[in-house]
Amino acid sequence: MALGGAPLIRLTVKERILLHLFEYVKQADALEVPPGMTQEGIAHASDIAVPHFTQYVRPLIQEGLVRERTAHVKGVRRRRKVYDLTDAGKLSAYRLRDTLKSEIVRVRDQQG
Asked: Where in the chain does DSSP place strands (E)?
């Protein structure tokens, strides 16, 4: 299926996670971070179920693209595990974003 003759590009879960975390590079070393850096925040933004989050993030950690740490999350009382990009992850996400800038990207919203 194509949109206007362009091939349909489907982002992998790995790519969606990298692009989501790329939005938070400035908070990578912050003591208090936004909820979007938690398992739930990443799962929601990447359109995956929270119980499946680990199976997608573990390979990214093993590849050295994502790191896991504990931090305070805004609006949450206890410290939680949060995730951010390593330098290699930032480079990978940057390259992916630049590649996608030249493509037509269809986004599914609540209306489909």
From this structure: 2-3, 6-7, 32-33, 66-73, 80-85
